Amino acid sequence: MRCPYCMVDDTRVVETRLSDEGAVVRRRRECQACGERYTTFERAELQLPRVIKVDGRRENFNEEKLRAGLLRALQKRPVKTEILDTALRRILRSAMSQGEQEIASQKIGAMVMEELRQLDEVAYIRFASVYLRFEDIDAFSHALDRLRSNRQNPGVEPAVLSCHESGQEQPGR
Fold first, then answer.
1. What is the pTM of this model?
2. Is the per-residue pLDDT at 85 higher than 90?
């Protein structure tokens, strides 16, 4: 590693720590020439799959778009930023672990809904209402009934609303 102060290649690692739940290695380094210390971060560079939109278009996976959607759903809700970041990492990890070069936007939406269902029920309903295009009170009522049912039967595998269950057409995401 080249020293950012004097540009000499002779540096040594003084301290190494894991951060970000083990996804990042933080290293304190010291330049052997000028004695300056600095920090570097090392993380695996993983390729996220391309997203197949409902209309067939393909676009690069946009982590910021995903974060913005989660933030919008969680707006004014009592969920800490660290918890949001952890949920975002789980979604990204899940998308990468599919082992495919492309992933359908509906699959990403289902991952987001599952994370939100576990984090905050109000945020889940907010996201579902937009993602599944609720058009009337019955769609909201159905979603609330499913949440109540899952809350009363915690041993049952949680069901995430699908487009068909909500009575709506395919989402436009």
1. 0.58
2. no
